[in-house]
# Entry
Amino acid sequence: MEQIHCGLLYGGRSGEHEVSLRSAASIFRYLDRNKYFPVPVGISKTGDWFFQTFESCGGPSLPLEQAEENRVTLVPGRGFFVKGAQLRLDFIFPVLHGTFGEDGTLQGLLDLMDIPYAGPGVLASALGMDKEKAKFIWHYSGLPVVPSVCLSKTEYAGNPASALAAADKLCLPLFVKPVCAGSSVGIAKVKSAGDLHAALSSAFEFDTRVLIEKAVSAREIECSVVGSGEIRVFPPGEVIPRHEFYDYSAKYTDPDGAEFKVPARLTAEESARIREIAAKAYQVLDMSGMARIDFFIEKHTGEIFINEINTIPGFTDISMFPRMCEAAGLLYPELLDRLIELGFERHREREALRFSL
# Structure
């Protein structure tokens, strides 16, 4: 059987660049070489694309060399080119967390290039990245979300008191979050009204819209979902932060920032309810391929809330998404096989459509 040339797009301009290098290293190692020929394409922090010539990687992160002679150019309808020659890419596995990778922009580009890829399409990716719109759709669909208020940068600049009004409505403590940013970038916990404006100023550095959200004293539960149409929802895992909340440091820079339990210690009823909500949350956003859905279980009441959805979750050896799949019997190489298969299926369905009369 001829190998599938599988492009790995990694790095990128977002604040999760280094996380992407680690995720990509794991995927690179676990791709079955009998089926796939990995083609690494690294994207620098300035957004430049470079073909990578290494054939093996033993370290925790995939290298990203920025050699001018290996600069990649894209021609819609024709493909990727290096040194004037077309780079064979049968499939793309995006390993770009956050902005410009997980938000629908890359997915739109790949659709224009007519190249199949792993993960959700344009709309689902954009909705998954947009915390305000995702929460709105979930709430409309009868799913439980934490109460929040969204402020635009223009609205806040013209009426700073609107932030205080939102805080009064929700009651302290609060979380302030950029609407479209991942990995807890720009998020702050606000315990007093005097800290609110500083938190908003910081969050507005990362997006033009910000959520002010009621803080919930909760357990943090995560759930992996794989599939398109017919989906598989895996038993949940639990993140136990050793920081005040699961912030960027706890996720990526502090090796003791959190403890992980896979599977989570839940009752059968709690696990079944979370998996039921995860399935519906996935479907109403028109997800396909994969996602990790994060939940809160309020400690005193046991009430369950959806926190957010991640359409390109972490893929390191210790990341929760592959660990939850593996705990249920779907091993890492088989998970990659399934995601690539789903990407090809969606592409074939799209190719069967008519786009003109």
